[in-house]
Amino acid sequence: MRLTTRRGTVAALTASLVLALAACSSSSTADGGATADGGSDAGTITVEHAQGSTEVPADPQRVVVLDFGALDTLDALGLDDHVVGVPQSSPVPDFLSDYKGEKYTDVGTLQEPDLEALARLDPDLVIVGFRSAAAYPDLSKSFPTVDITFPYTNFLDSFGESAQILGQIFHKEDEVDAKLAEIDAKAEEVKAQGAAAGTGMVVSTSGGEVTMYGEDSRFGLIFTELGMTDAVQGVANTPHGEVVSFEAVRDANPDWLFVNDRDAAIGQGDAKPAEQVLDNELVAATTAWQQQQVVYLDPQRWYIAQHGLNNVPAMLDEVGQALAR
Model-level pTM? Predict the structure, then answer.
């Protein structure tokens, strides 16, 4: 769908997650910097985001990123040289491994940013989202901070609005639009495959326990955007999924089973892998198992990063390639 349709969708979904593109005056300073509405200082813009409105420097040069999906988007836009700090104490996804090491300051974890490390960096901008969003009130007292969290419902529309916040800040709106158009086209291709593939079920394993996710979850785009029919309707939208028994998996009998290994995602290397957790006679009775239509999703992409202008196409490809087998 076109970006012009994408804009405004989030506000209609939930008033608490307003991700409309920021209002900024068309006036310019002598050096080309934008001037925000309301007569604020030259060289700043005001953006609206999930937790309010923030005045930030135009094209900030020292950025701390506390969300790996947002980091993926900055990387896709060629803004790696703007990043000075990332939460390396959280497992950094392998596809963002360039951001590990001494070049980038470790600023704690996604859930608990290191405020002292941030103070030493004195960034021009801090970007939070999802797991780090709770730190926004504290961070925004000291640094220009924006929250790019978005609701999972209408995933592509919501993600598009979120990506455009970063596009606006860094004057990369056209680049973001182009990448979103490519993502929309790819999603339409996969959706045709999904619509013809039958029913699907998304489960996650952790500590030997199995939970399932529905249309309103972080994995919901498999159903809402990629055409799969959910084998179980009305699944509760909880952060770690709704606990489900192996008998319930058998009874749902999905044609396709999509699996997230949460232990692998968070670095619990000594935990039993998802393949072993699900290897029992109850799950083996499903069409998905018998037809070898069990897809083990990349947990770093789907569970840890969740979004990003490079990551989302990789997520769509993962589903499309599985359905094409």
Answer: 0.87
